[in-house]
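Risk register update: the risk of archive-format incompatibility is retired. Evidence:
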Amino acid sequence: MEYANDLKQFWKRGYGHDINSKSSCILFHDLFSRLEKAVSDHKSGQKVTEAVTVQVGHAETLLPLLTLLGFFKDNNRMTSVNYAAQTRRSFRTSLIVPYAANLVLVLYDCGNDDLRLQPLLNEKRVDFPGLTNQKASMPRFQDVKELYRELLQGCDFESECQLFRAPAEG
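Archived output:
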């Protein structure tokens, strides 16, 4: 039963199709723009106007965002015929997005311009994919931005999700 549900979510909202995660581009950019605003306010000596932002959604919102961020990506794609090879998979929706699932990004100022970002999923520390060699699960904010540089410069929901593309000029 668990594998059947994970398989469905993998193809519907997870890594099965690239477009699944692109639906979270707007949320991704909103998260990072809020973090950047907090950093900017703090560095300029102003009071941080949004110390906490709470956005509420469903598993169907959170799973594509986690996919876009690269969390819980296994080496092999889930299919209906590779169940036996998937026993150690990290993509398990019952653990990733249980009832009342939540993602928290905590921005720390560790002094000397050392800003760090700690991700918590369901109140448990998780590592940003590719940044596991850093201090526990609290890498430098600059390194997190570099990790997601392509998404920060692109990942435009409108261009990703439009039904018809304008013909190329030329």
